[in-house]
């Protein structure tokens, strides 16, 4: 089978469509001195690609231009590696050059995917973001009530479970889909955007208020959660789906009006969090995740898409909220 890459064909207006991307046949690349050649086995599709396709500036990753190959978290099998790299042909590594059959990784651009996790696909779980935010930006304490906005996505579907394992007494999630609400793991209650006023649903689900907010969405979800924040509540801002998935915006902003005076009176703390580049939290997460998987107390919900040629449609499906959990493309 010939190698392929998925490239930007046109800069989208509104939400990206499959036709904005092109699946292009390419030769097998050649690794240079100090580089590692891998054949990708899996990669994930994440919603933040919409912002990069919209030209957002200031993110940890650069915006795309026409002709660029998309990228994202991947697991690949080593084909060739320098003698001093410690890698052998057949080893599995994690890296950020998904969306292609073969990838050439620079020194330091990969991490060995060890055998601690029972399934190599589990290395693509976004649980590290959930774990990092709920242990650092907004630490969960025993007995807390935790609200996770966007609780059915790749991060949120892990955050509810992680919150529970860290000691939360009650975990509430939000989603825009009644179908997902019935299937989201780790939640005591789920509020559904559009089913009834979100603030009313959340007030019923959290009658004693909210201690920790894990915010993937912003917008109405964040405003409703802050209205119910208990004194000393902690808020981790990890996503901005209300803006990224808005077809009338370019994915680079997610404005929301909040009453900061009330936050001051309640001593609510808010912090943005990203696990990107946080090697310490990743080192801590893997053994905890592996132990929880072995004990059967956590799941990695994901939807499998077979074939790189289906990746453009899979991106559109992610951005329109079709699937529960992480979307994993097998190459």
Question: What features would you highlight for this structure?
Answer:
single chain; 331 residues; alpha/beta; Quinone Oxidoreductase, Chain A, domain 1; Rossmann fold; 2 domains; 7-stranded mixed beta sheet
Question: Summary?
Answer:
The chain has 331 residues and is an alpha/beta fold. It is 25% helix and 24% strand.
List the SSEs and their pairings:
Elements: E1 4-8, E2 21-25, E3 36-45, H1 49-53, E4 74-80, E5 92-95, E6 102-105, E7 111-112, H2 127-137, E8 145-148, H3 156-165, E9 170-175, H4 178-181, E10 189-192, H5 198-205, E11 210-215, H6 219-227, E12 229-237, H7 241-244, H8 260-266, E13 269-272, H9 279-295, E14 302-306, H10 311-319, E15 326-330
Parallel strand pairs: 8-9, 8-11, 9-10, 11-12, 12-13, 14-15
Antiparallel strand pairs: 1-2, 3-4, 3-6, 3-15, 4-5, 5-7
Helix pairs in contact: 2-3, 2-9
